[in-house]
């Protein structure tokens, strides 16, 4: 199954015995509590509606402040995954008591990496 199709299908919320809701004259509906919990939405959140075949798919959307969009770039998310993998595998530095101690450690590592190794 291709990723795009899987993502869309995975958004379908299935709740046994779904309550029926009534559309108001202005086109509004009250979303049942169990649907809100399942979609993890709250008052004021945004929803995206899309038809897939003959089904309506509802997807919760979160708005991001413009100064935070860098975090959600593909490159940053890939780096985050790599960092999490490093942490899981124990590839981390020690904990420093002060900033100066951390800076000193980084300078030492930089020196080790940039100093040519002597041949035997």
Question: What's the number of domains?
Answer: 2
Trace the largest sheet across and list its strands: 1-2
- The first-to-last residue Cα distance is 56 Å
Helicity range of the residues? 25-40%
Along the chain, the helix and strand elements come as HHEEHH
CATH class of the largest domain: Mainly Beta
Which CATH architecture of the largest domain is right? Ribbon
Class per helix and strand makeup: alpha+beta
How many DSSP-defined strands? Answer: 2
Q: Which descriptor suits the 3D outline?
A: elongated
Query: How many whole angstroms does the radius of gyration measure?
Result: 25 Å
Report the average pLDDT across residues: 84
The share of residues in extended strands comes to 5-15%
Largest sheet: 2 strands, antiparallel
Structure, described:
By secondary structure, the protein is of the alpha+beta class. The protein has two domains: 3-61, Pemi-like Protein 1, Chain: D; 66-114, no CATH class. Helix content is 38%, strand content 12%. The chain has four helices and two strands; from the N terminus they run H-H-E-E-H-H. Strand 1 and strand 2 form a beta hairpin.
């Amino acid at each position: 199954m291709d990723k795009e199709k899987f993502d869309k299908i995975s958004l379908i919320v299935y709740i046994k015995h779904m309550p029926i809701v009534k559309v108001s004259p202005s086109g509004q509906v009250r979303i049942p509590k169990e649907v809100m919990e399942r979609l993890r939405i709250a008052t004021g959140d945004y929803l995206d509606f899309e038809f897939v075949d003959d089904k309506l798919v509802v997807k919760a959307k979160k708005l991001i402040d413009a100064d935070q969009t860098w975090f959600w770039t593909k490159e940053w998310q890939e780096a985050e995954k790599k960092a999490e993998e490093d942490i899981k595998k124990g590839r981390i530095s020690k904990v420093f008591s002060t900033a100066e101690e951390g800076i000193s450690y980084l300078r030492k590592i930089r020196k080790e990496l940039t100093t040519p190794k002597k041949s035997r």
